[in-house]
Specification:
Mean pLDDT: 90
Radius of gyration: 25 Å
CATH superfamily of one domain: DNA methylase specificity domains
CATH class of one domain: Alpha Beta
Number of strands: 21
Helix content: 25-40%
CATH topology of one domain: Adenine-n6-DNA-methyltransferase TaqI, Chain A, domain 2
Strand order of the largest sheet: 2-8-5-6
Strand content: 15-25%
Number of helices: 13
Structural class: alpha+beta
Length: 400
């Protein structure tokens, strides 16, 4: 029996739209919703302090020490967190004291992820939630905790695999940076350099450096699928995968001129994310926004070396030194960026590094593909498992 048939069969077993063996309850009946507290007077420590965007800092005191789902009180109302270690949370987030005799804490997290909490917004200028509104949220859940546990186990297995692959990629990135420092960081500007080594600037290795398309007229973001993506600053700062970039409509001549190709490097040139960069690892059906600068190396230079240069701490300091404008909206000019100086070794060393880097990137790309496949499967299963359309036994068959 395929997945669609399993879902249809399960629907026939539902009584009053509630799956067989499930019960209707409310969020207020399975947990207490508590307010976060101000963190400003706390000293630095070892416990994570959460805000609406995630961990803000580590502090020396805890607000709660049991598994909890953190729910935004203000801001992006869909930005939920699950935490199972001692923590502190600020007053823009609620935390939950969960009755584990009624609901598995991680199950509650997954369940709330399927709800559109933005529909419960009671704010005007700033999206907001209240305890009274949240307490009345209706939940349909398995009465048997063991069934909840099994559903959590299925979804957590996907989360764990994704996390492992993400950690592998972080390790691969660190390895590349370590090798680059060992091979290329032996000398400083001002040192007497061996034969074949020389001081250069980005101008020496860059073929083209240009900003992208404006988002109003030439590359607007649209809801419908167009087959062309547009890379924006937020995609770089939030490290979004290609399939999560916005869809766009562009003229053919603009697509050809601004299409992203393997080896392109994009750097945010404005805003609070100035200097954030992205390395294009394969040719993409995508263009880029005018908040970014694209660097493309000339025929004699290696893009792997350029990527390592712009991800170095020294380059980040250069970005800080050439940024100008107000404190809320810094900007960067292309010419100032291209004046950056660095030391390059002989061409044979650069070529040898490029071979190692290509192997590294291939492993990262394979991991990225697995992550996207796992994420898509998890996102497909999540609402079906949380609604009872797909039961545990059927779900286990579906993921085999």
């Amino acid at each position: 029996m395929n997945l669609e048939a399993q879902i249809a069969a399960n629907k026939t077993k539902m009584i009053n739209d509630i799956p067989e063996g499930w019960v209707e309850t409310t969020l207020g009946e399975v947990c207490k919703i508590k307010y976060g507290k101000d963190h400003k007077k706390l000293e630095d420590g070892n416990f994570p302090c959460y805000g609406s965007g995630g961990v803000m800092r580590n502090v020396n005191k805890i607000l709660y020490d049991k598994p909890s789902v953190l729910i935004p009180r203000k801001g992006t109302l869909s930005n939920l967190f699950f935490i199972n270690k001692p923590f502190w949370t600020v007053d823009t987030l609620f935390y939950t004291e969960i009755d584990e005799t009624k609901i598995n804490p991680k199950y509650l997290f997954y369940k709330l992820k399927t709800l559109n909490l933005a529909d419960l917004n009671v704010g005007s200028a700033v999206p907001s939630l209240t305890t009274s509104v949240l307490n009345d949220v209706i939940l349909e859940i398995p009465k048997n905790i063991l069934e909840q546990d099994s559903l959590v186990q299925i979804l957590t297995s996907f989360d764990n695999k994704i996390s492992l692959l993400q950690e592998q990629n972080k390790t691969l990135e660190t390895m590349a940076q370590t090798i680059f420092k060992e091979w290329f960081g032996k000398y400083q500007i001002g040192d007497v350099l061996p034969e074949g080594w020389h001081v250069g600037t980005l101008k020496d290795i860059i073929k083209t450096a240009n900003t992208g398309l404006d988002a109003i007229k030439r590359a607007p973001i649209v809801d419908e699928e167009t087959g062309i993506k547009c890379f924006r600053i937020q995609d770089a700062s939030q490290k979004k995968y290609f399939n999560k970039w916005g869809n766009t409509i562009v003229e053919k001549k603009n697509f050809e001129k601004f299409k992203l190709m393997k080896g392109d490097i994009l750097i945010a040139r404005t805003g609070n994310s100035i200097g954030v960069n992205y390395f294009v690892q394969e040719n993409l059906n995508a263009v880029f926004n005018n908040g970014l600068i694209r660097l493309r190396t000339n025929e004699k230079s290696n893009y792997s070396v350029l990527n390592m240069i712009i991800t170095s701490d020294r380059f980040k300091k250069h970005i800080d030194s050439i940024s100008y404008g107000t404190s809320t909206q810094p900007n960067m000019q292309i010419n100032s960026l291209l004046n950056y100086e660095f030391i390059l070794p002989p061409e044979e060393i650069q070529n040898e590094f490029e071979k190692l880097y290509e192997l590294n990137i291939t492993k990262q790309n394979n991991n990225h593909q697995q992550i996207q496949t796992l994420t898509k499967t998890r996102e497909t299963l999540l609402p079906k498992l949380m609604s009872g359309e797909l039961r545990v036994a059927d779900a286990l068959k579906a993921v085999e």
